[in-house]
What we know:
Layout: E1 3-7, H1 17-23, E2 35-38, E3 49-54, H2 63-69, E4 75-81, H3 88-100, E5 108-112, H4 117-126, E6 135-138, H5 141-144, E7 172-174, H6 181-192, E8 199-201, H7 225-229, E9 233-237, H8 258-264, E10 269-272, H9 277-284, H10 303-318, H11 322-345, H12 349-357
Parallel strand pairs: 1-2, 1-3, 3-4, 4-5, 5-6, 7-8, 7-9, 9-10
Amino acid sequence: MSYNIIHLTTKTINGTLFDQFGRNNHLDKEIFDFNDILIDDVNNLSTDRNIILAGGWDISKHFDKIKKLLESPNFILVFCYEYEAFLDDDLDILRNNLLKYNIQEDKVYFIDFNIFFNKSFSIWNGSNDIKSKLNPVFIDTMIFHNYNVFFPDLNIKQRVHFENKANRKYRYVCYNNDPKSFRVRLVNDLFSNGLDKFGLISLLRKENPLVLDKKVLGQYRVYPTEHFSETYFSVVTESYFPDESSSESYRWITALTEKVFKAFLLNPFILIGGYKSLSHLHKLGFETFPELFDESYDDIFDEDLRYKKVFSEIKRVCGMDVNKLNDIYHSVLIDKVIYNQNVYIDYDRKKHFNKFMKQFKWE
């Protein structure tokens, strides 16, 4: 049985998740084999599994043909959001478009990198008067992502920063690009509690920005090795973190981005992110750092309590005796970072991609 990716435009032939993660993965070639076909060239594909790839929100130009193809049992329509999480408004817009063109909902799949996409989708769907038959699909985007571009010399196995055996000048490094409310809260709390002196901190707000890594900002943020030679751990602020105004479905967004992966491939880390983030990393086979932090914060669903627990751990570790911290870092934590580097490089991405593909159903 062969697979065909049906494109609405030539713009999606290169760079989609099926191309980047499957056919041309940077570490594992030929994870997923398929044929590229433009929708205008589709003829008799009755024996193949066909994925009509929506290149964006609007399918109006081709909706007649899409609707016709979806009448066949071996065609499905897929919307990819592999680097973002679908919010309620996004789902509303997409569903309204599908209803407008009378597209068969049970043949439509939404790809999202939220670990709890099924849960957040279910909450959104529960608010609809007429329940949707759309199919949520989860993908572990970052396990397939190319991190070489974020590291000096395009080499993930960065280890020179482990060689500094002396007590280090700082305890942590904390990068914050977009000044989202929870990041501003963290930076304010670090300063108001006198913990800024222990850290290398950036926050790229419009007024009085804290610039730490400007000299290496370009297409990719290649963080200087010296930041990790001078610190013992990273404080990671993920892309999604709810507040009191967030919807219930938003509270179930747990999305692991390059921020946490870049961190644990270089440093021990503590995370301000979604519920059960660490648990998911464990399922993927990676190590976290309970020798340094009380990681019970990962089991706290309430975002304010989770934040407070994380902050209390940052404060506690900053107050540790530096000799003790230095000893734990070199005797235990470095080996776990090296282990994570090796797990990432040797990961069985073909098996993982096959698991992802099993979420699609053809009649």
